[in-house]
Model the fold of this input.
Amino acid sequence: MDGYDLIGDIHGHADALRGLLRGLGYRERLGGYRHPTRQAIFLGDFIDRGPGQREVLELVRAMVENGAAQAVMGNHEFNALAFHTPDPAEPGQYLRPHLDKNLHQHRAFLDEYETRPAALADVLGWFYSLPLWLDLGELRVVHACWHPQFMRALAPELDAGTRLTPKLLEAASRQDTAQFDAVETLLKGLEADLPAGVSFVDKGGVQRYRTRLRWWLPAEGESWRSMALLPDATASLLPEEALPASISSGYPTTAPPVFVGHYWLHGTPAPQADNVACLDYSVAHPAGKLAAYRWDGETLLSATKFAWIDHAGNQHFGDDSAAG
Done:
């Protein structure tokens, strides 16, 4: 195998996925898409938002099961499991409450699976097969945050291959547990309480008193403004007060490259650090992209290795050496 093609959050956008795979040199053969010399790695969040929920899942699943791809779980797959799992402590309720907000977020998936109980049970079973992270030695993959401390804490409760169990799903769905903190960080990112009296309004109009952080940076020497993983206009509202160094020790510059999704970035894809790359460029947004990184063993990541396709079908594949 010559290398890996890491692919960001798809969110039900099957046409973009097919276009991206074709541009990367994957061809649809018996058993699904396949590259003659490379393997894809999907970063999770296959569902919700887009018009092709089942098509995306069938395509990705076929690739994984035929050895043409690997994949990790995203927070939307975790949420789906919790949404469809009855809460044993609250008869008639579910681990993820069926509130209007949660129903709205999950609507595209429900529209395709709600009346197909056998297909729903089958795909939820497949979600359980997705590891929470992959450590392949030369590179690492997790949906939102590589956090060794939380990974070590979860290890005794995981199934083989860093996979979620029903027992861990229940524990990680309750906000007062250590399991919740660990899974929340791996799948949604590192967060911290803002200083007293500081808050901001997010893109959904919700007042926030916590912020996601650029977890790959050591907190020492950073301010709330520089460390917050927010749009520039929102981050500029935060104080330049220094963060407590205990919040984050950063991702070591000597560690293997790590790839994440989740963060709904905009603009031209580029690494976040020499060995950190986010591949979520908001494909569900009209101006967004479905992005990939073509990794060929390098320890220092390069902006020239990103590829993407947008809603209009415009493509950028840079160096075409991986296509075939």
Notes: The mean pLDDT is 95. The two ends are 14 Å apart (CA to CA). Residues 100-113 form the longest helix (14 residues).
